[in-house]
């Protein structure tokens, strides 16, 4: 697991961590019941505050991606297929929004864009 913190990002650090861990969970790089690094260990590795790391883990727990076990740490939650599907759909929608924006700047019509998508889908 490789988490990258960007100082030039407009997202706060805890959100950068949260988003990257979500991606690892959604793609299966982090498996069900797999332990996450301890809050202190991750904070030390990333050279950030323990409070920031704790907030990231708490956000993941609120969203159902991880579970905390008192005295033991945080673990990847058992998969909620509906939640995973929804998050993947959200990722696709975000990427498509960027593609649509770029297509409009190039002057592509919706029909041309759909044709490109159909060709690539097959």
Summarize the structure.
With about 120 residues, this protein is mainly α.
Order of helical and strand elements = HHHEEHH
Q: What's the helix count?
A: 5
The helix content is: 55-70%
Strand content: 5-15%
Q: Rough shape?
A: elongated
Oligomer: single chain
- Low-confidence blocks of residues: none
Average pLDDT works out at: 92
Classification by helices and strands: mainly alpha
Distance between the termini: 32 Å
Biggest beta-sheet profile = 2 strands, antiparallel
Strand order of the largest sheet: 1-2
Radius of gyration: 18 Å
Counted beta strands: 2
Describe this structure in words.
The chain is mainly alpha-helical. The chain contains 5 helices and 2 strands, in the order αααββαα. Strands 1-2 form a two-stranded antiparallel sheet. α1 packs across α3 and α2 packs across α3. The model has no long low-confidence stretch (mean pLDDT 92).
Key traits:
122 residues; mainly alpha; two-stranded antiparallel ribbon; 60% helix; elongated
């Amino acid at each position: 697991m490789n988490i990258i913190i960007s100082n030039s990002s407009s997202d706060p650090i805890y959100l950068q961590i949260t988003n990257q861990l979500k991606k690892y969970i959604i793609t299966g790089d982090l498996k069900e019941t797999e332990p996450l690094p301890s809050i202190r260990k991750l904070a030390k590795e990333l050279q950030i505050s323990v409070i920031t790391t704790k907030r990231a883990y708490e956000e993941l727990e609120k969203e159902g991606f991880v579970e905390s076990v008192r005295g033991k740490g945080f673990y990847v939650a058992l998969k909620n297929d509906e939640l995973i599907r929804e998050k993947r759909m959200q990722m696709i929608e975000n990427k498509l929004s960027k593609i649509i924006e770029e297509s409009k700047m190039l002057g592509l019509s919706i029909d041309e864009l759909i044709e490109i998508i159909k060709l690539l889908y097959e």
